[in-house]
Specification:
Layout lengths: L3 H26 L4 E3 L4 H14 L12 H8 L6 E4 L5 H9 L4 E10 L1 E5 L7 E3 H8 L22 E3 L5 H11 L10 E2 L3 H9 L5 E4 L1 H5 L5 E3 L1 E3 L4 E2 L3 H5 L7 E9 L6 H12 L1 H7 L7 H14 L1
Helix pairs in contact: 10-12
């Protein structure tokens, strides 16, 4: 016959065991992980930080593995939300379907992919699409500014741009070089746009490209170039991105959400908060906000899923 002390000890052990299981389950369900585009990162990070001011129990880590890197994790069910600076590709949709992942695409902002040079560069203010193509196309051997225009100085040119997992890379190469992924390989790549900012700002002969918000955050360190698509030189700005005159490098930005994850209260509430505050979050991040009706459409879409 067991004595009372032994039985009491067993009860305490069982209580602690099941408490730990419960805490573990609650901890897991209270995490909303996001990964993907470094361009969309500032918007999602701001959303996460502000949301947690009233929901401190929800952990929201935000990664920057690039649009492609985010989709690799999203399409196998590793993360509930993927940031993307391009639409999902057919192969990625196929991967998601094969893994039983259903999703919804939500547009969160407009962006103008920006071409920048070092702040000390005083010889160029605008480049044509054709000149960008000559510099960045596969097989290009242009490595001096005077190879672009004879009026430019004899200064060595180093190039900085997103890595191949980046949606910005996909978009730029398709619009400038005519084929997604087509590019010269002898440039300094990174999925982290802050690394590109450091490279261009520390190199007098540098040229690089990334999302508009990273220029806005570093206006004292970088010089923004206008782009001439044949209709005159236009620099990216809130107005030129919104009205489409900054062409061909204006684009929408997205988050993709696993629809089964929307059934989790914390995921639904976070995405709802993201869209309800979409205009503020986009503008705070240095992007162009969508018309309110587009955020409202997104809210209706997630409400229908829930």
């Amino acid at each position: 016959m067991y004595n009372k002390n032994f039985i009491a000890l067993l009860l305490v052990i069982f209580f602690l065991y099941f408490s730990l299981i419960s805490c573990s389950a609650n901890s897991e369900s209270s995490t909303v992980e996001i990964d993907g585009s470094s361009t969309v990162f500032p918007i999602s990070m701001a959303a996460a930080e502000i949301f947690r001011e009233t929901h401190p129990e929800v952990q929201i880590p935000v990664g920057i593995s690039g649009t492609g890197g985010g989709f690799k994790r999203f399409t196998v069910g590793e993360i509930p939300i993927s940031d993307a600076s391009r639409p999902i590709k057919d192969q990625e949709v196929k991967d998601a379907t094969e893994n039983g992942i259903d999703f919804i695409e939500l547009t969160v902002a407009f962006d103008g992919l920006s071409v920048v040079v070092n702040n000390s560069n005083d010889w160029v203010d605008c480049l044509t699409v054709e000149e960008l193509h000559k510099v960045w196309d596969q097989g290009s051997n242009i490595n001096n500014w005077n190879q672009i225009r004879s009026s430019f100085p004899d200064i060595h040119m180093n190039l900085y741009g997103p890595g191949t997992d980046s949606g910005t890379f996909d978009y730029f190469t398709e619009e400038i070089n005519g084929q997604e992924g087509r590019t010269r390989s002898d440039y300094t790549p990174s999925e982290d746009d802050n690394v590109l900012v450091l490279g261009v700002s520390g190199d007098k002969g540098a040229m690089g490209y990334f999302g508009y918000s990273y220029y806005v955050e570093n206006t004292k360190r970088l010089k923004l170039l206008g782009i001439d698509d044949g209709n005159g030189c236009v620099t990216p700005s809130e107005a030129s991105i919104n009205d489409g005159t900054y062409s061909p490098l204006s684009r929408p930005l997205f988050i993709y959400v696993n629809t089964s994850e929307i059934l989790r209260k914390e995921v639904y509430e976070f995405v709802k908060f993201y869209l309800e505050n979409g205009q503020m979050l986009a503008e705070e991040g240095g992007f162009v906000a969508l018309p309110q009706s587009m955020y409202d459409d997104g809210l209706s879409a997630i409400a229908n899923i829930k």
